[in-house]
Amino acid sequence: MQDAPGAGFFLIWLVIAAAIYVYFAVCLQIIARKTNHENGWMGWIPILNIYLMCQIAGRPGWWLILILLIPIINIILSIIVWMDVARARNKPGWLGILMIIPVINFIVPGYLAFAD
User: Which residues contact 42 (CB under 8 A, 6 or more apart)?
Assistant: First the structure.
């Protein structure tokens, strides 16, 4: 009976995490479609979604390894990739820098996906 509050708390966080994942996957899929990439479905698969972002950004696929495995460099390269994704959507590149700011990093993908 003592584990019930902990289980409820875990369930709430699990639902929130799933909602965030779905939101980012949908945004990435829409961005891929609007930038004429036919592999938008990659946005739903972990690791492949980073590869898709590199494709949209016009960066080489091997950047995926750098983003996944090298600390500090991964932050810098992720910002560069998001800046290039913004440019691919004909938006200002500085939007990619905003991805390091908590809460704002939820708004930027939605803006890139749903803005005209």
Answer: 32, 48, 49, 51, 52
